[in-house]
Amino acid sequence: MFIREKLVKGKPYAYAVESVWTTQGARQKNIAYLGRVFVLPLSNTSLACIERETESFVHSFHLDEKGRSSSNTYSKRVIINLIGVVLSCAGFMDEGSLTFSLSSKKMGFNCVVDIPRCLVRVNRRDAVLKIGEGYLSGFSLRELVKASSSKGTLKERAKLLAGALVNCGISLKPPIFVELFKRIWVDGEGVKKFHTEEESEGEIYW
Questions:
Q1: pTM for this structure?
Q2: Are 65 and 172 in contact (CB under 8 A)?
Q3: Which of 39, 91, 127, 182 has the highest CB neighbour number within 10 Å of its CB?
Q4: pLDDT at 63 (0 to 100)
Q5: Which among 64, 76, 55, 58 has a CA at the least distance from the CA of 192?
Q6: Is the pLDDT at 197 greater than 70, yes or no?
Q7: What's the angle, vertex CA 114, arms to CA 43 and CA 154, rounded to 5?
Q8: At what angle do helices 44-60 and 174-183 cross, to 10 degrees?
Q9: Containing H/E element for 32?
């Protein structure tokens, strides 16, 4: 799944899309309409802040003495707080309960992001925030939360999580992604299994 931007009457809108095989070859199928796209301009200072603070945030979470995260709830908590870090660096005001707001007269909109409820709204309508190469929306937030507790091999889980992060506009350096992946590992074996499966740390970030 990926997100595609399309111009309609000169205005950008976003759609969740997947590739499907037909008798005519590969085609793109719209899964969901996500809303109008609003670009979130980020200064070099904001970009540097995001890189610095996300790295600091990831390292601030500690695994227990057995090297495992406690539950799926823990995994989701790490992910939704990571999004909060990015929004704060992007100039959003923290309204409490992991809800953030941004009002811009220059851009002509009022934006509210309610992370726990997976809502992104501009001027009270469902919308999409373009952050870098990604698109933060209610849909991409839900996909990211699901990816934090997905099933499958290490490589499959890591690929799904990395893709969901990028779709939301969150780009992490490979070593930081590996650290994040360790901290939201939800199986009982935790990091012990992480180090014993055939995939090595270097292969987790593809």
A1: 0.79
A2: no
A3: 127
A4: 54
A5: 64
A6: no
A7: 80
A8: 40
A9: strand 25-39
Write phi, then psi, for 95 (nearest 5 degrees). -95, 5
C-alpha span between 41 and 10 (Å, rounded): 19
Question: 188: which DSSP letter?
Answer: T
* pLDDT computed for residue 107 by the predictor: 64
CA–CA–CA angle 179, 201, 195 (5° rounding): 95
Q: Which residue has the tokens 């979130």?
A: 40
Beta carbons within 8 Å of 179's beta carbon, 6+ residues apart:
58, 59
Domain boundaries, the chain: 2-204
**Residue 195 scores a pLDDT above 60:** no
Residue 147 pLDDT class (50, 70, 90 cuts)? confident
Rounded to whole angstroms, the Cα distance separating 195 from 202 reads: 11
- pLDDT per position as a tens digit, 90-141: 889 999 988 999 987 766 778 999 998 999 999 889 999 998 889 999 999 9
Tokens 């901290």 locate to 183
Helices (H), the chain: 44-60, 72-89, 138-147, 154-167, 174-183, 190-196, 201-204
**Beta carbons of 53 and 43 less than 8 angstroms apart:** no
Euclidean distance between CA atoms 113 and 118, whole angstroms: 8
